[in-house]
Design brief:
This protein has 453 residues and is an all-alpha fold. It contains 18 helices and no strands. The radius of gyration is 22 Å and the shape is globular.
């Protein structure tokens, strides 16, 4: 028998769900994102320097993340989200005008502040809202809906970003213009109901923040299921965060190798930039739409597999195969096939994310949800901070004997990104099998409660 369709939301509830979706849509108007690595490489950075800068950002994020989650639980989540977007706006402005390598570090510190105050906090608001409505069993479905709107925003952002680069031939404008939708996001937060701040009271003492922080950490490491989910997040999301941006130099390499000439006169450097921007749009739009579809259908995939834990196993197997195939394509110089591989990995990640979040939230406590979800983000950030510089070193080491630089790296030099993904997938798959397989019920049955300890 097929499961009953969820009851429709009341008009006021639909309006709040729309605001949640609008948050994701505006937050993903990140016009810099499709060109982030390319913009910094264009300023003379090497892949190693990029990796160190990304690693620095992740370390700063980790240092701020759990306190930010505790502050959100104690002082109010809406205020925390407002602070996050203000940090982002300051970071984008700094990135637009920074020129020297060392000037990028303060900008990335501001960016890390925005990430830290946002990550986990908004998801906790959504899940607490569902709990308040008595619809906590719809976490995967509703989070998938909101995330799908985020990805639709990404699709539009790719088109606008490519148009900005083509029109200005200057990457700084993708940072400057990103501040506009983030300012609109601040306005959107002002219409969130006050109860979404959580149970905390404004003005509590710092000691209460420390207490909430300790409670979240203790919960994350005292429950076996949460510990295993931390490791799975580190292996899947951590390496994905470090490797995903290598799609950008891959697109540039494929655009450079293309024999097609643009039908209008441009300087050689501008022609290369415009060709890359067009390819970014050509790949980025279907990538974002596919990610949106995958995220929105994650709850159906979970139901078809018999639960989130079983779905996670199949996602691990799929991701491992895709990373291996992408690595083989890169080694063989088949850049177009490697692009398809990166796109498919992104689609899998967008099924994985709402699935993991739902699994994680099932074992957290509502009162410290933002803190606990921030611990998960800490775990994946730690891996990204370590892996990103190592990947940069590896790619630079492969490109250097070819007499090439980060600006002209070929597809063959990018295979360490796929190799790292395959290695971490093996570890994550092993953890999933060891911890969760004994909890698997028959197909189509609800999962058993997790065992503590």
């Amino acid at each position: 028998m097929s499961p009953e369709a969820p009851a429709p939301f009341a008009p006021a509830e639909r309006r709040q769900l729309w605001r949640f979706c609008l948050y994701g849509f505006l937050k993903n108007q990140q016009y810099y994102e499709p060109f982030f690595m390319l913009a910094l490489l264009a300023k003379g950075l090497s892949f190693t320097q990029w990796g160190l800068l990304l690693g620095f950002s992740k370390v700063c994020n980790n240092l701020l993340e759990i306190p930010a989650g505790a502050i959100a639980d104690v002082w109010g989540r809406r205020r925390t989200m407002l602070a996050s977007f203000l940090f982002y706006i300051a970071a984008f402005s700094a990135l637009a005008f920074s020129q020297s390598y060392w000037a990028f570090f303060p900008a990335m510190l501001l960016f890390a502040g925005g990430e830290a105050f946002r990550e986990g906090t908004h998801k906790a608001m959504i899940f607490d809202w569902l709990t308040r409505l008595g619809r906590g069993d719809e976490k995967t479905r509703v989070y998938g809906i909101t995330r799908s709107w985020s990805k639709l925003g990404s699709a539009l952002a790719v088109v606008l970003a490519a148009a900005i680069v083509i029109a200005t031939r200057d990457y700084k404008w993708v940072f400057i213009l990103t501040t506009i939708p983030f300012a609109l996001g601040i306005v959107n937060f002002l219409f969130y109901p006050k109860y979404l701040d959580g149970e905390g009271r404004t003005g509590r003492l710092p000691g209460e923040v420390a207490r909430m922080l300790w409670a979240g950490l203790r919960l994350a490491f005292s429950k076996k299921q949460l510990r295993s989910l931390l490791v799975e997040s580190m292996c899947f999301e951590g390496v994905y965060e470090a490797a995903k941006d290598y799609l950008q130099p891959l697109l540039k390499a494929v655009a450079a190798a293309a024999l097609v000439s643009l039908p209008f006169a441009l300087a050689p450097g501008d022609q290369q930039m415009v060709k890359t921007a067009l390819l970014v749009a050509l790949v980025g739009v279907p990538l974002s739409l596919l990610a949106s579809f995958a995220s929105r259908q994650s709850h159906r995939a979970s139901a078809a597999c018999g639960g989130d834990d079983r779905l996670a196993f199949w996602l691990w197997v799929t991701a491992l195969g895709l990373y291996l195939a992408t690595g083989a394509a890169l080694l063989g110089g088949a850049g177009a096939l490697a692009i398809v591989g990166f796109v498919a990995i992104t689609a899998v990640q967008n099924v994985w994310r709402p699935t993991l979040t739902s699994r994680y939230y099932c074992h957290a406590e509502t009162g410290s949800a933002a803190t606990t979800l921030s611990v998960e983000s800490q775990a994946k950030g730690l891996v990204a901070a370590i892996v990103a510089p190592l990947l940069g070193l590896a790619v630079d080491a492969l490109a250097r004997p070819m007499g090439l630089t980060a600006k002209t790296a070929p597809a063959q030099a990018l295979w360490p990104a796929a190799a790292a993904g395959a290695l971490f997938c093996l570890v994550g798959l092993a953890v999933n099998l060891r911890v969760h397989r004994r909890h698997w019920p028959g197909a189509g049955q609800p999962t058993e409660p997790a065992t503590e300890g």
